[in-house]
């Protein structure tokens, strides 16, 4: 076994590998760029080596720098994580030449399966059903359009070396193919150093189901069940679960055996994933193979009890698999939410900045439910523009799917993040969605269920009553504290607060009464009493306790004369008044928002890649105005209506803050 390994990655996956290595008694070496000097993985590792500038092309993607770091520290092996160099055939070859072990598959397997074009050719040769498409390298947009016309729309344009939704576009017309081809090639080049793309038929109403395989260097290969990854946005997974609510045991076995056969055909000898596109009728087609550890591997670990990182390390050290196919048993259900630094109400555009508050829910097992949080950040740390916007992966495991979803919803409510925009409100709303809860999924789920984008819904029904009760409870606690402020002109005993209050939950009015009960107090709303039990202290970002005997977690953010409460996917400003105060508040004029209709504002912090128009140019609705890059994704900003360009305030290469004015319209 190795004494010391180097992790050629950053963020949560680097921290994840370090945890397993530490448990195995293996020392770890972290590498870091200028932007990651103070990163969590640097702090966690036994040693750390600086490898270059913030841009990945000058640091994490430079093989020579990784090898130099290994030689300087005496690391015997390298775990690549995912992304960066993890699927580059040249990386394990260079490591081998330097006498360093690659904790991953052999270069031949990476060449055969890591390249999406070659993997489809290999699958076709092995008589594996594949999605119709053109498997050759496409030279230009004209050829891409011709191929798409022959295949039939819609089509998927995909980077050959891609992953994580980068370098991927869906096109429904020839014009969209031409533009998507250019964007996919550009993103592929900047993210993977390989601008090859291919075109295939896009299957409508599909499900994305993948099989985890594990092989060793002695010819043994097994599969560890499946993961359902159909909840996607812009072709990037958002929520994953294991097992899939679609599959029965017979289909699971067919998919697993096919995945194993494919892995055996290329001599696969590590952890890898065979991805399938599945129809609602349980038909399935080979999509691609990821020759690395997947982002969503924790849900497989939770239902199998197998540490995939440990198995990868043991296999790389030459050990045989410690289990056979018969030993693999699936237990319970697991759900994973990817928590991203992005603004869901601004079409999920990236958000950067400092994590002023970062308080994840408590990890561990209780009453058969497990909560796990894989992360690479900490409170006070910074989310930069240079890398993937992932903050954490929140994972829950329980005996049933319904219980795992309920646990996930509760954990999301208890996850407090401030300082940047994030997608927890969206994830919380998803957990409450009836279609998600029923398991009727497809990769078009988000586009179909949120066609106008996402806006946190106003609380209704019992959720609204719980939030009103919590708002009243917070106000009551603050009033109790005011009674004990020292040095008041009036004696504390003479201070009395009205027990009849008005809770304004957004625009909804709830009249409540605070009544004393044995052991505490209750909030009475509409004649219904809600006993309140909580140890919440003012200033804490999450209110936890019981409301009417039910365990509840509610996000709390202070605002002027009130708080913003978020719970169960709903959010609202909450202010608590006396009846007279409520009458006066109703007379206050509403603040009007500034008119920015004649300006193009930068929707996220990012880099201006291109300006597509000039001053005085007439534009039509839908016409591209500029391209802003953030977190490895290129975002085309388009005109919302016809007009004329009056002024342009930004130029190519500018780094802009959110809401910076890019141009003005006449």
TrEMBL record:
Protein name, entry field: propionyl-CoA carboxylase
Top EC class for this record: ligase
Catalytic activities: propanoyl-CoA + hydrogencarbonate + ATP = (S)-methylmalonyl-CoA + ADP + phosphate + H(+)
NCBIfam families found in the cross-reference section: PRK08591.1
Origin species: Microvirga mediterraneensis
Keyword Cell membrane tagged: no
E.C. number(s) listed in UniProt: 6.4.1.3
SUPFAM superfamilies the UniProt entry points to: Glutathione synthetase ATP-binding domain-like, PreATP-grasp domain, Rudiment single hybrid motif, Single hybrid motif
MF term (GO), any: ATP binding
Keywords: ATP-binding, Biotin, Ligase, Lipid degradation, Lipid metabolism, Magnesium, Manganese, Metal-binding, Nucleotide-binding
Co-factor(s): biotin
Stretches assigned to the Lipoyl-binding domain: 590-666
Any one GO BP annotation for this protein: lipid catabolic process
Domain Biotin carboxylation: 1-451
Pathway the protein acts in: Metabolic intermediate metabolism; propanoyl-CoA degradation; succinyl-CoA from propanoyl-CoA: step 1/3
Domain ATP-grasp, residue spans: 121-317
């Amino acid at each position: 076994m190795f004494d010391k390994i180097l992790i050629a990655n950053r963020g949560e996956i680097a921290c994840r590998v370090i945890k397993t290595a530490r448990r195995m008694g293996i020392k770890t070496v972290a590498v870091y760029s200028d932007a990651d000097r103070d990163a969590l993985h640097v702090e966690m590792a036994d040693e750390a080596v600086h490898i270059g500038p913030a841009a990945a092309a000058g640091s994490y993607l430079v093989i020579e720098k990784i090898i130099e770091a290994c030689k300087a520290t005496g690391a015997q092996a390298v775990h690549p994580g995912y992304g960066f160099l993890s699927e580059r055939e040249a990386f394990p070859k260079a490591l081998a030449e330097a006498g360093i072990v690659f904790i991953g598959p052999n270069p031949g397997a990476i060449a055969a399966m890591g390249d999406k074009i070659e993997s489809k050719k290999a699958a076709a040769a092995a008589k594996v059903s594949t999605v119709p498409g053109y498997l050759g390298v496409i030279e230009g947009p004209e050829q891409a359009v011709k191929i798409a016309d022959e295949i039939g729309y819609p089509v998927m344009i995909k980077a050959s070396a891609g992953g994580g939704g980068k370098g991927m576009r869906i096109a429904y017309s020839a014009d969209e193919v031409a533009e998507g081809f250019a964007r996919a090639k550009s993103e592929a080049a900047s993210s993977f150093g390989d601008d090859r793309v291919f075109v295939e038929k896009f299957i409508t109403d599909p499900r994305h189901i993948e099989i985890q395989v594990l092989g060793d260097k002695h010819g043994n290969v097994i599969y560890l069940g499946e993961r359902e990854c159909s909840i996607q946005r812009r072709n990037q997974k958002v929520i994953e679960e294991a097992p899939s609510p679609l599959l029965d045991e017979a289909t699971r076995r067919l998919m697993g055996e096919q995945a194993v056969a494919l892995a055996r055909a290329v001599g696969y000898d590590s952890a890898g994933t065979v991805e399938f596109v599945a129809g609602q009728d349980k038909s399935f087609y080979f999509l691609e193979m990821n020759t690395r550890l997947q982002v969503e591997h924790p849900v497989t670990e939770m239902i199998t009890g197998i540490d995939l990182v440990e198995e990868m390390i043991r296999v790389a050290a030459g050990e045989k698999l410690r289990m056979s196919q018969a030993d693999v048993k699936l237990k319970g259900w697991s759900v994973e939410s990817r928590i991203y630094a992005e603004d869901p109400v601004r079409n999920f555009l990236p958000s950067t900045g400092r994590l002023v508050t970062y308080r994840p829910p408590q990890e561990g097992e209780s009453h058969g439910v497990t909560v796990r949080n894989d992360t690479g950040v900490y409170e006070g740390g910074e989310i930069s523009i240079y890398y993937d916007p992932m903050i954490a992966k929140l994972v829950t495991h329980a005996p049933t799917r319904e219980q795992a979803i309920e646990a996930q919803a509760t954990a999301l409510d208890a996850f407090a993040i401030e300082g940047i925009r994030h997608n927890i409100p969206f994830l919380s709303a998803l957990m409450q969605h009836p279609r998600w809860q029923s398991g009727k999924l497809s990769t078009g789920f988000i586009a179909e269920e949120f066609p106008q984008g996402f806006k946190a819904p106003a609380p209704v029904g019992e959720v609204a009553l719980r939030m009103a009760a919590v708002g009243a409870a917070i106000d009551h606690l603050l009033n109790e504290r005011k009674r004990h402020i020292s040095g008041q002109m009036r004696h504390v005993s003479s201070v009395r607060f009205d027990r009849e209050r008005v809770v304004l939950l957004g625009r909804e009015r709830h009249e409540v009464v605070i009544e004393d009960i044995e052991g505490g107090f209750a909030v009475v709303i509409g004649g219904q009493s809600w006993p309140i039990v909580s140890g919440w202290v003012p200033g804490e970002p999450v209110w936890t306790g019981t409301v009417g005997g039910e365990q509840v977690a509610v996000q709390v953010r202070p605002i002027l004369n009130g708080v913003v409460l978020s719970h169960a996917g709903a959010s609202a400003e909450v202010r608590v008044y006396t009846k007279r105060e409520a009458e006066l508040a109703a007379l206050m004029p509403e603040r009007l928002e500034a008119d920015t209709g004649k300006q193009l504002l930068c929707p996220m912090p990012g880099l201006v890649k291109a300006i597509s128009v000039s001053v005085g140019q007439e534009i039509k609705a839908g016409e591209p105005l500029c391209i802003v890059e953030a977190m490895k994704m290129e975002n085309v900003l388009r005109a919302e209506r016809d007009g004329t360009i009056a002024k342009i305030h930004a130029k190519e290469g500018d780094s802009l803050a959110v809401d910076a004015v890019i141009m003005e319209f006449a």
